[in-house]
Amino acid sequence: MRSLLLLCLLWVPLAVAGSLTLSPVESEVLDELNFARTEPRRYAEEVLAPMLRYYQDGDIIEPPWRAPRPGLIQVVETQEGIDALKEAIEAMKSAAPAPALSASYGLTKAARDYREEQARQARVGHIGRNGSTPADRISRYGRWQELAGENLFYGDADRMIGRFVVMALIIDDGVPDRGHRLTIMEPRYRRVGIGFGAHPLYGYLCVQNFAAEFYDTP
Known about the structure:
Blueprint: E1 2-4, E2 7-11, H1 24-38, H2 40-48, E3 55-56, E4 59-61, E5 75-77, H3 82-94, E6 102-103, H4 105-121, H5 134-139, E7 142-155, H6 161-171, H7 179-185, E8 191-199, E9 203-216
Parallel strand pairs: 1-5, 6-8
Antiparallel strand pairs: 2-7, 3-4, 4-5, 7-9, 8-9
Helix pairs in contact: 1-2, 1-6, 2-3
């Protein structure tokens, strides 16, 4: 069986303020983001390097985020093969640690809204159906300062979903400038919002909204 590894798009703790609480998978994504940011060398050694054994002739064979299916060999295609993984390992080994992110009520509301919109409309990309940009969407819930960005992950998994989401964005297969990884490791970011759920075309969508600072609208 062959399937698309993921589609990732880029635009350059469990409790959140108010009554909003991250879902279990959203919490996993936050923990994984902070693992990568605060201990990039260890992340490379403990998360990325073990993936080397799953690559064969440009494909990933029986990836760990898929549950075994008796009588079926699961094959996931990549665009760059093992080279993208090796490059990510070296980049993370040499990366400077970045501060941990804290979850933001307003950024999470914006991320969840957009995830729901794209699921309803079976759409992909950073521009909403009404022409909204990431800046438009996060500004509905507050005011951001200095820097803001958005990562979109589309893909499917049976288990270790939070790890798969972040790992895939850090490897950034098929994205020449590795923009998703750069966003994750950007040291100026301090706040993040995460919206995770089903997507009719790709299985799941995870929206990550980042900001250097964010002030919720009262």
